[in-house]
Amino acid sequence: MYNKMRFNKTEYKQRNIGIWNEVAPRYHKRWASINDGPFQSTSKLVQLMKLEKGNTVLDVACGTGVVTKKIREKIGMSGYVVGVDTSVTAIKIAKKWNKLKSNLNFVNMDAEKFNFTTKFDAITCQYALFFFPNAQKALKNMKNSLKKDGKIGISVHGHKDKVPFFSNILDAIMEFIPNYIPPGAPDLDRFGTKSSLSNEVKNAGFSSVFVKDYVFKYSPGKFEDYWKNYLRYVAKPLKEKLDSLERKTREELREKVRENTIQHTKRNGIIEFPWEVLILTAKN
Fold first, then answer.
1. Which of 56, 157, 246, 252 has a CA 20 to 30 Å removed from the CA of 175?
2. Could you tell me the CATH superfamily of domain 4-161+184-216+277-283?
3. What are the residue ranges spanned by the domains of the chain?
C-alpha cells in the first residue's frame, strides 16, 4: 500500500504546472472557448453568483480566462476582476482572449499562497479545487480575501461514475498502467458529491453553503474519435506511459475502453456522455 506521507506536494504542483503549460492551448481550443461539454457550466456559475455592476471579483485558477470573461461582462466597466493561475501559458492565452481592459488583470499566482491588500466582493473557482493538494489552505486563503458577507462560487466535476468521459478511459488504463497517475495525486472526483464538496467548504469557515447539480451532455463523436482524441490531447508524461505499452497490450486496453463506452453509444455509433457538474455557492 502506498504511504501517503511520501507524496511530495511541491513536486506534484511543479508537475501540474508543466502539464498545464503544455496542454493549455489545446484545452482552450477544444473545450473552454466554445463552452462545450462541462464548460456549459461557465454561465451557470456566474449566474448563481448574482454579481452586480461595480463588484470586485477574484477568479482563482482562472486558466485561459473563460469565467473571467463572463464575470467582466457581468460587472461592467465600473467593476474589477482579477484572474490568477499558476500556468504562465494559460495566463498568456487569457490575456490575449480577453483583450486589454482597464477593469481586468491576470496574475501568475498559487491558490494556496496569493495575497491581496484589498478584499473582494466575490471569488470564483472553476474545475480546480480538486487539483489543490491542500484544499483547506486554498479555501481559507480565498476566505481571507473576501469582504464580510462576500460570496464564493466553486464548480467541480461530479463523481467519476457520473462523468464517464473520464472514467471510461481512466478505469481501463489504471488496470494496465497502475502508476499512470502519480500515487497520492488528488482525484478529479475528490469533491464529486454534494456532501463532500459542501463539507470541505464548511470546514473552511464558510456559511450559507448551497450546492446545485447539473447534468450536461457531451458527444466526442464515434469511438474512434474519442480514443484518437484522447491520445492526441493527453499530456506528454501520460502519453509516454501509454506509448511504452506493447502493441498487444495497447490493443487490449483500447478494446476495454470500447467496452466501457457501449452503454453510452447510440445505434449510429455516436457516443453521448452525461457529464455531472456540481456548483457550490457560499458566504464568508
1. 157
2. Vaccinia Virus protein VP39 (3.40.50.150)
3. 4-161+184-216+277-283
Higher pLDDT, 282 or 237: 282
pTM of structure: 0.92
Q: How far apart are CA 179 and CA 18, in angstroms?
A: 19
What is the C-alpha separation between 98 and 94, in angstroms, rounded?
A: 6
According to DSSP, residue 181 is labeled S
pLDDT, residue 64, reads 93
Q: What are phi and psi of 161, to 5 degrees?
A: -65, -20
C-alpha cell at 181: 497517475
